[in-house]
Amino acid sequence: MAFGNVDWIALVAAFVASYAFSAAYYITLGKPWMAAIGKTEAEIKAGASPVAYVVAIIGHILIAYMLSVLMVSLAVGSIAGGVTMALSMWLAFVIPTMTINHRFQQSNWSHTIIDGAHWLGVFVIQAVVIGLVAS
Q: Which residue among 31, 49, 82, 131 has the highest number of C-beta atoms inside a 10 angstrom radius?
């Protein structure tokens, strides 16, 4: 697997697009998400830390990097192919892992649905951006 053939402009664009999506998504669904995790806005603000944002940035960059590497290595030359890959990765890795964790954490299903839809958006947006910019 060639790790050097990543289009870094596509990777940065994918990161920026998905991070902006994440911000808009959770601003829009902030109240339902807080209800799903059983916390108030005051509790969220009291526990706020820049560490969460650093972890989110690193996570988005890692996802964009791996999508880029896989799309190049597997010669995925179309946006549709990238979206198919993103959907497959989301369905095979993200949803099972998150669902297992949420069930053991005794989270509401609404928490899983809100977070799962978010990660679906992140993966698809990144695949589309990488496909557009890198092609």
A: 82
**Among the residues of the chain, which ranges form H helices?**
8-28, 30-37, 41-46, 50-73, 79-89, 95-104, 109-134
Residues 40, 54, 89: CA angle, nearest 5 degrees: 90
Considering the domain boundaries, does residue 99 fall inside one? Answer: yes
Q: Does residue 3 belong to any structural domain of this protein?
A: no
For the chain, give the number of residues: 135
Spatial neighbors of 51 by CB under 8 A, at least 6 apart, are: none
The Cα 11–Cα 13 span in angstroms is 5
Confirm whether 2 is domain-assigned. no
Contact 122, 83 (CB under 8 A): no
